[in-house]
Design a protein that fits this description.
Length: about 130
């Protein structure tokens, strides 16, 4: 699965793809750090505040990715489908507390976004231009 770069075109090289990925994920990573720091400083606990914090973070990240020319399917995939699929079983088994959700849900989103960022076009024998 691939997405479009910020300008609506596929990156031309690996370096361009990496730079585009860094630009795309810089703000969500900064929000992740801010979320964890604020969560720690406020001393908030419990599932309701954790769910609200993660939902606001996911909505902000989804809006940012859409502004970066990502289509809806990858945005939904990385902002709520993957984190929900991976973290719900851990939560149901009691292995993931509310505080862990605040860290791992946004971190899972960033890792999933890295997995679906644009791939550079194939070059060389059989895959060249």
């Amino acid at each position: 699965m691939s997405t479009l770069s910020g300008a609506g075109r596929a990156p031309a090289s690996l370096g361009a793809a990496l730079a585009d990925g860094v630009r795309t994920l810089l703000l969500p990573v900064a929000w992740l750090v801010a979320l964890v720091v604020c969560w720690t400083l406020t001393g908030a606990t419990g599932w309701v505040p954790a769910g609200a914090a993660v939902a606001v973070w996911a909505a902000g990240t989804a809006t940012w990715l859409r502004r970066q020319a990502w289509s809806r399917a990858p945005v939904h995939l990385v902002t709520w489908v993957v984190p929900t699929a991976l973290l719900t079983p851990l939560t149901a088994l009691g292995w993931l507390p509310a505080d862990g959700l605040v860290l791992w849900s946004p971190l899972t989103t960033v890792l999933a976004a890295l997995a679906v960022t644009p791939q550079p076009p194939a070059t060389g024998p059989g895959g060249g231009r």
